[in-house]
């Protein structure tokens, strides 16, 4: 039986492209024929809103059909899976209640591994080729849960003056989680929101390519307003505008992910 690969998109720096990358890489993998489950781990619900409209997301929040309930009640994630409307692409939505998830976890036994336990049956069933998890822009017990439930970490970094700020903390956090979950692997850093002509893009790439033990994805994502239009319409960019530059870039990034995990 094939093994399900779990990948978390995390960076404590806000707005670095985590949710956009998780949604669009997920969509591209599903289009290649892989079966993909997306897990929205952020109270901002941006990954959920990438596929479902606001009314539907609020409904799933109200009905408790979301990740918060699964984790709080330590239930099998299977009960919380929805289809995104695209073949091979499913989703566990988030809820604004995720803002109190740290509090919920606090008193639980082996609290770093609650999400891993919720995912266990689905992961072991081998139904999905990939489970992709979108993390909030924090570093704490909840992100630790997301990482302890993952085989790989991808850190999206925005090519901006402050894009590298705090990255050292992210690397330190990764090292701490690895002590708890030794199989966690840093797959790489993916640069997003790139203006090639701006100096800080070159600086970002220079810095990252000189950072030891860190793979820098060859495919990066340039700034493209189609991404925002697509998100406004709750669609992956490749659906909203198939000819968009970023659609091709996300396809190439997804192919690079495949080559790195040997799928
Ligand atoms: N390539 C791009 N071109 C233009 N805009 C982009 C691009 N990638 C992301 N954005 C925009 O940048 C903003 C931040 O992106 P995104 O929400 O994916 O980051 P994030 O790291 O998930 O943020 P947060 O830390 O708040 O969860 C969004 O408004 C998104 O529309
Ligand atoms: Mg996000």
Give a description of the structure:
It is a single chain. The chain has 263 residues and is an alpha/beta fold. The protein has a single domain (5-261), classed as Rossmann fold (3-Layer(aba) Sandwich). The protein contains twelve helices and seven strands. It has a seven-stranded mixed sheet, with helices on both faces. α1 (18-31) crosses α12. The longest helix is centred in the last third of the chain and has 17 residues, at 245-261. The protein is globular and about 50 Å long. The mean pLDDT is 95. The structure holds adenosine-5'-triphosphate (ATP) and magnesium ion. Residues 18-19, 42, 44, 46, 134 line the site of magnesium ion (MG).
Question: Averaged pLDDT, please?
Answer: 95
Major beta sheet summary: 7 strands, mixed
- With strands numbered from the N-terminus, the spatial order across the biggest sheet is 3-4-2-5-1-6-7
Let me know the number of strands: 7
Question: How much β-strand is present in the residues?
Answer: 5-15%
Which molecules are bound in this entry? adenosine-5'-triphosphate, magnesium ion
Radius of gyration: 17 Å
* CATH class value: Alpha Beta
SSE series: EHEHHHEEHHEHEHEHHHH
Tell me the count of domains: 1
* Helix/strand structural class: alpha/beta
Count of separate DSSP helical elements: 12
CATH topology, anyone? Rossmann fold
Overall 3D form: globular
Q: Unreliable segments (pLDDT under 50, ≥5 consecutive)?
A: none
- At CATH level 2, the architecture is 3-Layer(aba) Sandwich
Spatial gap, N to C terminus: 13 Å
Portion in helices: 40-55%
For CATH, the homologous superfamily is named as: P-loop containing nucleotide triphosphate hydrolases
């Amino acid at each position: 039986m094939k093994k399900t690969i779990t990948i978390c998109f995390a960076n404590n720096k806000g707005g670095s492209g985590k949710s956009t990358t998780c949604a669009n890489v997920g969509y591209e993998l599903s289009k290649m024929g892989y079966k993909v489950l997306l897990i929205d781990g952020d109270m901002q619900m941006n990954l959920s809103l990438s596929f479902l409209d606001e009314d539907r997301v609020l409904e799933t929040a109200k009905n408790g059909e979301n990740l918060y309930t699964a984790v709080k009640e330590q239930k099998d994630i299977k009960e919380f899976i929805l289809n995104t409307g695209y073949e091979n692409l499913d989703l566990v939505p988030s809820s604004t209640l995720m803002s109190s998830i740290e509090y919920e976890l606090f008193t639980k036994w082996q609290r770093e591994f609650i999400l891993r336990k919720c995912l266990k049956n689905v992961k072991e069933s081998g139904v999905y080729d990939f489970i992709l998890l979108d993390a909030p822009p924090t570093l704490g017990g909840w992100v630790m849960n997301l990482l302890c439930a993952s085989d790989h970490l991808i850190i999206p970094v925005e090519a901006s003056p402050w894009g590298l700020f705090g990255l050292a903390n992210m690397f330190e956090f990764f090292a701490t989680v690895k002590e708890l979950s030794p199989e966690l692997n840093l797959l790489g850093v993916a640069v997003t929101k790139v203006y090639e002509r701006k100096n800080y893009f070159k600086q970002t790439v220079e810095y990252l390519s000189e950072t030891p033990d860190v793979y820098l994805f060859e495919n990066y994502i340039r700034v493209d307003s189609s991404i925002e239009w697509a998100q406004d319409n709750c669609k992956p960019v490749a659906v909203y505008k198939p000819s968009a530059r970023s659609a091709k870039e996300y396809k190439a990034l997804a192919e690079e992910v495949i080559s790195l995990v040997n799928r």
